[in-house]
Amino acid sequence: MTRSETEGICVEVKTRYVGGRALPEGARFVFAYTIRISNTGDAPAQLCRRHWFITDAHGGVREVEGEGVVGSQPLLHPGESFEYTSGCVLETPHGAMHGSYTMFRPNGACFEALVDAFVLADPQAIV
Fold this sequence. Notes:
The protein is an all-beta fold. 0% of the residues lie in helices and 69% in strands. Strands 4, 5, 6, 8 and 9 form a five-stranded antiparallel β-sheet that branches. Strands 1-2-3-7 form a four-stranded antiparallel β-sheet, with no helix packed on it.
């Protein structure tokens, strides 16, 4: 598990390998990650955007960004948490992700809650 904290927003990530299969265009390795976002600060914050950098074992980087997470833009009051599970497909048996969430405060302040790099790996692969 990885853990990051920015301005009272704590992000914890757990990953798991779902499986892989060979397709005509190449191998695909599927990973799931569960993210828990907690407000450990003293002011509300709303998650409005996500921004990910996904790196495969060959050094290829894919950038993904968009509104909210899994169709939601949660508003977290102090002491509240939001958890979701999503996934990622790589062409290699291991890689990594890192990124950030754009958070807004009711007073109009905006900041990036950083998500430290976390590993995506097939436990049977030699890393």
